[in-house]
Amino acid sequence: MPVTLGAIRKLRTDKGRTGINAVVKRIFREVVSKMRKHPTAKNLVEVYKRLDRAAKSQVIHRNKADRLKSRLSRLLRKK
User: Fold this and answer.
1) Does domain 5-78 have CATH number 1.10.10?
2) Cα(76)–Cα(23) distance, rounded to whole angstroms?
3) 54 contacts: CB under 8 Å, gap ≥ 6
4) DSSP assignment, residue 57?
C-alpha cells in the first residue's frame, strides 16, 4: 500500500484511468473484430473513429492504430 499522500492520490487516479482505458480497449477490439467479419464502409468509419480515439488517449500506440487501419482498409479493397 502507498504510504505518502501523493502516492495515495496517484493510486486513486490510476484505478480510475485503468477502468476507462479498459473500456476504450474493449470497444475498439469489438469494432475491429466486427470489421474483420463483415468488411463494409460503415464499419470502416467506425473502426477509424475508435482507433483514433484510443491512440489519442494513448491507450494504444499511434503506429499500432495506423497499422490496424491500413490492414482493415485492405479488406474492404479486396471485397
Assistant:
1) no
2) 27
3) 24, 25, 28, 60, 65
4) T
Please, which pLDDT band fits residue 20 given cuts at 50, 70 and 90? very high
Q: Cell 485492405 identifies what position?
A: 74
Which amino acid is present at 68? L
Amino acid at 32: V
With left for phi above 0 and alpha for psi between -120 and 50, is residue 58 left, alpha or beta?
A: left
> Model pTM?
0.84
Q: Quote the strand ranges of the chain, DSSP E.
A: none
Residue 4 binned pLDDT confidence (cut-offs 50, 70, 90):
very high
* Cell triple for 12: 486513486
- Output phi, psi for 40, to 5 deg: -130, 165
